[in-house]
Design goal:
This protein has 488 residues and is α/β, with parallel strands linked by helices. It folds into 3 domains: 6-108, Rossmann fold, CATH 3.40.50; 120-323, Mur-like, catalytic domain (UDP-N-acetylmuramoyl-L-alanine:D-glutamate ligase), CATH 3.40.1190; 332-473, Mur ligase, C-terminal domain (Protein-Tyrosine Phosphatase, Chain A), CATH 3.90.190. It has helices at residues 31-42, 57-63, 94-102, 109-117, 131-144, 201-204, 207-219, 234-245, 294-309, 314-321, 350-364, 378-383, 385-392, 416-422, 439-446, 465-474; strands at residues 23-26, 47-50, 67-69, 82-85, 105-108, 121-126, 150-157, 162-165, 171-175, 190-193, 226-230, 250-254, 261-269, 272-279, 282-289, 332-337, 340-345, 369-374, 397-400, 430-432, 452-457, 484-485. β11, α8 and β12 form a beta-alpha-beta unit. α1 runs parallel beside α4 (109-117) and α9 packs antiparallel against α10 (314-321). Mean pLDDT is 86; it is low at 157-161 and 477-488.
């Protein structure tokens, strides 16, 4: 996947969403595209989309008045003014080629999102890990404080039940995706960078190229605004030094002694995470989150800094985080069947997979941990095979699916087989399952009462949860129907 040539796109602020006319989104079911579609529909903009599978978000889009075509054909573009695509859509896609033939306006998703941001103060959240959770936390805090921000998030806030909203306030909160350089299309008032770790090197070449892009993104921040960075990550620390030397307003958070918002006494359990916080050297008390995982504590610190600087009081900020319900596909409990708890988790980078499995190990509380992992992107699986294998070895049982890599081609020796072989578990405790329909049966064979099963990785893996719960229940006819679904 090559990076986008940002110079080819419309600069942020040139167009507003209302200038786009009737909008059609190719591949509208994915979380990013469905969030944009939801935002457009709630702004009263006629919106359609095309898909090949019935993604969970589609029912909500139909309820908002969206037209969803369950096939890709030229007729889908009748009466359309603007066609939106994502990086996952190949340039020779039938509908893209038809849009060119008809002379329609064609926009990348990030370009259309930038148009939706026009006239608002944007809070853009970037970073290799933690974007969705941090964006969700900031959104919830601002909502709790009565700001009613607009937002587009790469996952649904469990309490809100949505990944996008058109608010009445002047703030717009959004994730900024670095994978294809599209985050360089935004002009934020607040830029947040959670961390910079090696990823998307097929676009940037090396870590230095990736860091240079994050620096460019930070420099796009409004001079009247500010940048929030993690003091515990080498890449963001270097970035903070550079930006401060340029006279930009930078706020940092983390466990480092020099962090503007310093965390200490961090503890995590099945009941959640808590820590002591000090802002600019002044103790501000305990911050609590009802979701476990020390990495969520760091995410929340970024949200606290941004919210307080935007005018939310500390007590209101801490109060909002205390009821943070979590984000779908981020440590989401899907249900229980015959004593086996099933979770879903989006992590696919080695760092985030490690953090997620360590937290799930805490939650398993003595039970075995079974991971069903679908690698995301061929290049990442190949280049980070050793690191991914080490992370997955934290589980007791590993079931590996084939790589999900739209538009990519696997080379000899690449993919799920190679990753499975590299995992440091005994052969009987790891297996490559290329057939999607065979996964539930494999889980039934390996999971026992008291165990925790997590589906993890590429977006399609989120669709497995219900199938696993049904299979686990059916495995014991005497206890049939014992599934206890857990909302959110």
């Amino acid at each position: 996947m090559a990076g986008l040539n940002i110079a080819d796109f419309t600069p942020a602020g040139t167009l507003a969403a209302e200038d786009l006319g009737r909008v059609h989104l190719i591949g509208v079911g994915g979380v990013g595209m469905s969030g944009l579609a939801r935002l457009l529909l709630t702004r009263g903009i006629p919106t359609s989309g095309s898909e090949l599978r019935e993604w969970p978000a589609l029912a909500g889009l139909r309820a908002l008045g969206g037209t969803i075509h369950m096939r890709h054909v030229p007729e889908n573009l009748d009466d359309v003014d603007t066609v939106v695509y994502s990086t996952a859509i190949p340039q020779d896609h039938l509908e893209l080629e038809e849009a060119r033939r008809r002379g329609l306006r064609i926009m990348h998703r990030s370009e259309a999102l930038a148009a939706a941001m026009t006239g608002r103060r944007t809070v853009a959240v970037a970073g290799t890990h933690g974007k969705t959770t941090t964006t969700s936390m900031i959104t919830l805090i601002l909502q709790h404080a009565g700001f009613d921000p607009s937002f587009v998030i790469g996952g649904e806030i469990s309490e809100v039940g949505s990944n996008a909203h058109h608010g009445s306030g002047d703030l717009f909160v959004a994730e900024a995706d670095e994978s294809d350089r599209s985050f360089l299309l935004y002009r934020p008032f607040v830029s947040i960078i959670t961390n910079i770790d090696a990823d998307h090197l097929n676009t940037y070449g090396d870590l230095a190229g990736l860091e240079a892009a994050f620096l460019e993104f930070a420099r796009l921040t409004d001079p009247a605004g500010f940048v929030v960075l993690c003091a515990d990550n080498d890449g963001t620390r270097r970035l903070a030094e550079t930006l401060r030397a340029e006279g930009r307003k930078v706020l940092t958070y983390g466990t480092a002694d020099d962090a503007d918002l310093r965390l200490s006494d961090i503890s995590s359990s099945v009941l959640g995470v808590r820590y002591q916080a000090a802002l600019h050297g002044r103790p501000v008390g305990e911050v609590r989150l009802p979701v476990p995982g020390g990495h969520f504590g760091l995410n929340s610190a970024a949200a606290v800094l941004a919210a307080v600087e935007l005018g939310v009081s500390l007590p209101v900020t801490v109060e909002a985080l205390a009821v943070f319900p979590g984000v779908r596909r981020r440590f989401e409990r899907r249900g229980v069947a015959n004593g086996v708890v099933v979770y879903d988790e989006y992590a696919y980078h080695p760092v985030s997979v490690t953090a997620a499995l360590e937290t799930l190990r805490e939650v398993a509380a003595g039970g075995r941990l079974v991971v069903v992992f679908q690698p995301y992107r061929v290049y990442r699986t190949r280049d980070m095979e050793t690191e991914l294998a080490a992370a997955l070895a934290l589980a007791d049982e590993a079931i590996i699916l084939e790589v999900f890599g739209p538009g990519e081609t696997r080379g000899p020796g690449e993919g799920g087989v190679a990753l499975t072989a590299a995992i440091g578990l005994p052969p009987a405790h790891k297996v490559f399952v290329p057939d999607w329909d065979a996964v539930p049966g494999e889980v039934v064979r390996r999971a026992h009462p008291g165990d925790l099963v997590v589906t993890m990785g590429a977006p399609p893996s989120s669709l497995l949860g219900d199938e696993l719960l049904a299979a686990l229940t059916a495995a014991d006819p005497a206890v049939g129907g014992s599934v206890s679904p857990v909302a959110g």
